Amino acid sequence: MAADDRARSFERALLAMDRVGARDTLLVAAEGADTLAVAESVVAPALERIGDDWERGAVSLAQLYMAGRIAEQIVSEVLPQVRPADGERPLLAIAVLEDHHALGKRLVLSALRSSGHAVADYGHGVTVERLVQRCREDGPRVLLISTLMLPAALRVREVVDRLALPGPPPVVIVGGAPFRLDPELWREVGADAAGANSAEAIELVDRFMGGAR
Ligand code: B12
What we know:
By secondary structure, this protein is an alpha/beta fold. Helices cover about 55% and strands about 10% of the residues.
């Protein structure tokens, strides 16, 4: 079955609140394949369509909520759990700023850790205040920020401004729906780059870290 057909059947199962069907679709797709790449090609497009359908009234808020929750549970179950080694001081940090759409960050974090990077996970629903404070304490070289809602995306500007002094500030890489919809938004909020998916997150981190892990 092609990736698009799988994404469609995953989407149908989510909308029918059929957890078992959705899980089976993903597990079959992941057989003998890279689980992360499969999650990217099946989960992300299915949820994006559900979001669009919700926006135009074709899907209810309850369906949006259940689809999000089911997808989150399944992704946690199938993705490799890669933890940083004890005592390691991560050069990278990731957070979902202000909002609670945590699934994209989960994929990006798994991808970075699987590719050998130590990444501190600052969680989701993180306020500007808390994010700046954590960065001052830990001093990551690269800060990855995920936001799915426009108001949160615009607040990246505040994070960047507040991290500018005392220097040196981390490189800020952003991602999430608002940055995909408006390809210039990352510049406007003062970030250093934006990535569309976890593969791009790895490419950008490798570029800015110059090979350091
Ligand atoms: C699932 C979902 C939910 C779930 C979230 C479950 C969870 N725990 O994550 C639930 C149901 C809880 C939810 C709630 C809400 N949601 Co919602 N939700 C979505 C939906 C359908 C899918 C998001 C998702 O998980 N996608 C799958 C993941 C894998 O993709 P992703 O997050 O985009 O991440 C990928 C890339 O963007 C990238 N990426 C992500 N972050 C980063 C970071 C870096 C550094 C890099 C390089 C890359 C990167 O890589 C990831 C992997 O490919 C989107 C639609 C959409 N188009 O995104 C709406 C959407 C984001 N939600 C929306 C809204 C409005 C809401 C609510 C306000 C609804 C309400 N009235 O209650 C609440 C707000 C909750 C809150 N305060 O945070 C709107 C936001 C509109 C806007 N312009 O601000 C959207 C866009 C729907 C729409 N089309 O209108 N939501």
